[in-house]
Amino acid sequence: MRTNKKTLAAGIGSAGLLGLGLYLAVPAAANPTPSPSASESPSSKPSGAPWRMHQRNGDAHPRWHGMGDFRGVHGEATVRREDGFHLSTWQRGAVTARSGATLTVRSEDGVSWTWTTDAKTVIRKEGDKSALSALANGDQVLVFGERSGNTRIAKLVRAPKKP
């Protein structure tokens, strides 16, 4: 059991580092004055969206409420552990399906991944421990886990508090 906690911590840590790297690298490489399209502008999002606009260096940026300033929507990172290399993966988006032990999440950019859950998967909804059955279509979630071949195994599913 101790190894599983270390594995989860390493996966979450590596995904966090990947997100931090993207957070630092993407704005530096992007056009300094982007002009959002009408369909992608924050003002066109539903009022119940779990993010808010925040000012940074004079520009408004969306911020995921309850998850810090994490802007990425999905990603993977290869990490080395005592037992070899593992592919840590994460995704942020809306639940589109739930069937048995699987959860399908669609990110804002249209990527849809199916995650397999098991008894070791930690599910938190609105800050409290929860069950997979508590997640409904449309719930915004952040999923951390690992990928082996084409199978994504969820280690943590987090649905933040609704604003």
Indicate the multimeric state.
single chain
Order of helical and strand elements: HEEEEEEEEEE
How many beta-strand segments? 10
Strand order of the largest sheet: 4-5-6-10-9
Description of the molecule:
By secondary structure, the protein is of the alpha+beta class. Helix content is 17%, strand content 43%. The chain has 1 helix and 10 strands; from the N terminus they run H-E-E-E-E-E-E-E-E-E-E. A 5-stranded mixed β-barrel has the order 4-5-6-10-9. A hairpin with a 5-residue loop joins strand 5 and strand 6. The longest helix has 28 residues.
List the helices and strands and how they pair.
Elements (H helix, E strand, L loop, with lengths): L1 H28 L21 E6 L2 E6 L9 E8 L2 E16 L2 E5 L5 E5 L5 E4 L2 E2 L10 E9 L2 E9 L4
Parallel strand pairs: 6-10, 7-10
Antiparallel strand pairs: 1-2, 3-4, 4-5, 4-9, 5-6, 7-8, 9-10
Task: Provide the descriptors you would attach to this structure in a database record.
alpha+beta; about 160 residues
Summarize the structure.
The protein has one helix at 2-29; strands spanning 51-56, 59-64, 74-81, 84-99, 102-106, 112-116, 122-125, 128-129, 140-148, 151-159.
